[in-house]
Write a structure and sequence with these properties.
By secondary structure, the protein is an alpha/beta fold. It folds into 2 domains: 5-255 and 565-591, Rossmann fold (3-Layer(aba) Sandwich), CATH 3.40.50; 258-284 and 304-561, NAD(P)-binding Rossmann-like Domain (Rossmann fold), CATH 3.40.50.720. It contains 16 helices and 17 strands. It has helices at 14-25, 48-58, 73-87, 110-138, 160-176, 196-204, 220-230, 269-287, 347-357, 377-395, 413-417, 423-429, 433-454, 469-486, 526-538, 578-588, and strands at residues 5-9, 29-33, 62-66, 92-95, 141-146, 184-191, 242-245, 249-254, 258-263, 338-343, 362-367, 401-405, 457-465, 510-518, 549-553, 556-560, 564-570. The protein has a 9-stranded mixed beta sheet, sandwiched between helices. An 8-stranded mixed beta sheet has the order 9-16-15-14-13-12-10-11, sandwiched between helices. α9 links the parallel β10 (338-343) and β11 (362-367). α4 (110-138) runs parallel beside α5, α5 (160-176) runs antiparallel to α13 (433-454) and α13 runs parallel beside α14. The longest helix is centred in the first third of the chain and has 29 residues, at 110-138. The relative contact order is 0.11.
Amino acid sequence: MRDRVAIVTGGGGGIGSAVSVELARRGATVVVLDNGDSLSGEPLGEPTAEATVRRIEAAGGRAVAAPISVTDAAAVRGLVEETVARFGSLDIVVNTAGILRFPRIADASADDWAAVLGVHLGGYLNVLGAALPRMTAAGYGRIVGVTSGVGLARTSVDGPAYGGAKRAVAALTWQLGPVLPAGVAVNALSPIAATRMVTEGLLAAGADPRGLDLSAMPQPRHMAPAAARLASERFGWCRGRVLFSAGSELSLIAPPRLIEAVATGGVGAAAALGALVPLVLAPAQAQQRSTGGSNPRSGPLTTAPPGSAAPPGSAGRPGSAAPPGSVGPGGSAGPAERACLVVGDDRALTERLTAALAPWGYATTAAPVGDTGTGDAAAGFAAAEHGLRRAAANTGAGLDAVVVIHGAHGISADRAAAPGADWRAILDSHAGTAPTVLGHAAWARAAARYVAATGRSLRVVHVVPAVTPGARSAAQAVTQLARSVNETPITPITPAGSTGLTGSDGSGGGLAAFAVSAESPHSADRVPLVELVASLVAAPDTASLAGAELVVRPGWLGLRAHPAPAVTASLAGAELGPWTDDALRDAIAPFG
């Protein structure tokens, strides 16, 4: 890396400092970007960047400090221009900057979500927006983003905002990397090491600080070789990939990949969905792989079996003509017995869903998305909580389900969907990613608080219209949110004088979250989307799809596996180099 110039964000401590030192050891001039904030993002102004610079200079390397924040887009652009003017180029960026806050979904504030998304996603977008024009013009560049295992294969009940932000970073990487011009590579590293984040996270989860010993874990310095390899000239062949590092092991993380698909264009689509949920989708979700490839898993799909995802008495055609509240369980006439709040600004889609839920015995009430994803985040979160409580009060008996249909588009669907969409369009579209995630987080928190206050069972279905790259990243982040919600215990708040709270089905109450990425721009695909959402709201056997990576595409709907390691290379004391590259090439080949 001699004569290369690098910027390392978050370089004042932990993994960022270790990476800065390693790049300098290999000959790079390193600009250490760190504003000295606390782990939670509290502005402290500590001279952390200067401390790393002193370490590098003491070892004979070259470095300068840049005490700015990645959230300051103008400052980041200015730093890139200054770096190029002073040193002649910008060849490498490693983005380790990050903060972490620990409240669970019911306790997380709007500021928690906005701050975490602002640094991890917004800050990274600022870095990419400043660095990529320079690198593409020069024909050379290496950018290494940082994601996390709790945004990929795992979840975090104590940091749902962190997990969602890190999934968005991974999703951005998978979409951006392949479309960059030759010579420029963007990848992401998912490290695990005994850092301040890990220590504070364990303490927040209730670990005893007196017995906390992380000496057996990889240390920050053990992450530096992997980051340096990703940033090296020879690794330019690899683009748009996520790699996990545990120091002695390196894993390729496969993106969410399709494992089951169901046709939605046939006349029996609803009946097919009802039959295939228990036979196909649920087992595939549980095993995270297709269960096909042998004997057929179902017979002719002309009728739906009892208890399936098709509504009782509907002959597999939900919502074809029944007005809201006119059909009760079993298809008999009578008042609706359950209530669903539909949150969204698409009136036509809301009306379709109202009709589809009627045969299940659900009446619906509607609420606008409002400002939950834009403007004042605190006001948006408060509005969501007020809106949910008001809708519950208006039903008289309370809510049984909430459907949130919300997505922001930064660029037109036509431009985003065009083959070979350029990297600028992809970055532009991600301007709407954080607002979309914020909007869904606001309603997820409101739902969690409602369950805690009432003890009711509540299903929440998050639908993200995902026809742009940024919206698809948002959809993945919202799925990660749903997965975290499903693993978070909700502690009931028993009102004074209550004899105990139960769910509407007689259980102890609980929250089940679902997520659907609606990736078709065609109006014809709204019908299967509505049928899928209605079944997630109402069918007993769709409970197993909570947190699944569900998608609706033109003519079909499907289930994707969660991101997971595709291959792991055990280093056995060897250096990262040609042999690991060869193993990774072999692992990547099936993914194209």
